[in-house]
């Protein structure tokens, strides 16, 4: 195995795209598909790096276990979308 310009080059006799995922996953964190019902805990949408929409990700919501205050309500989440204002906030331009 040799390295050239931050790429891993390996010799192979047949094309095998599935073999590309293993070396890549060791170098860069990969997205994982997981059903909502299989999530280990409550999730929230987070902007890890304001200014880029690529940084939107679901993370564990540590506040979910806290008791609701007297002026708070809990709502059941349904499918939703982002509007223009949400995009501006994610881009750090609110």
Please describe what this structure looks like.
This protein is an alpha+beta fold and 94 residues long. The chain has one domain. 18% of the residues lie in helices and 17% in strands. A two-stranded antiparallel ribbon has the order 1-2. The chain has a two-stranded antiparallel sheet with strand order 3-4. It comes from Lasiosphaeria miniovina. Residues 1-22 are annotated as: Disordered. This is Polyketide synthase.
Proportion of residues in extended strands: 15-25%
Number of E strands: 4
The rounded distance between the terminal residues' Cα atoms is 48 Å
Q: Regarding quaternary structure, how should these chains be classified?
A: single chain
Contiguous runs where pLDDT drops below 50 for at least 5 residues: none
Average per-residue pLDDT, rounded, comes to 78
- From the spread of the alpha carbons, the general shape counts as elongated
Count of separate structural domains: 1
Major pleated sheet: 2 strands, antiparallel
Helical content stands at 10-25%
Judged by helices, strands and strand pairing, the structural class is: alpha+beta
Structural Rg: 20 Å
Instruction: Give, in spatial order, the strands making up the sheet with the most strands.
Output: 1-2
Q: SSE order in H/E notation? A: EEHEEH
> Helix segment count?
2
Protein name: Polyketide synthase
């Amino acid at each position: 195995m040799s390295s050239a310009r931050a790429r891993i080059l390996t010799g192979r006799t047949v094309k095998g795209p599935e073999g590309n995922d293993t070396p890549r996953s060791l170098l860069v964190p990969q997205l994982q598909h997981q059903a909502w019902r299989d999530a280990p805990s409550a999730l929230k949408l987070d902007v890890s790096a304001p200014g880029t929409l690529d940084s939107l990700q679901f993370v564990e919501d540590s506040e979910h276990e806290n008791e609701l205050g007297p002026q708070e309500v809990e709502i059941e989440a349904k499918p939703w979308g982002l509007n223009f204002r949400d995009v501006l906030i994610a881009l750090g331009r609110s």
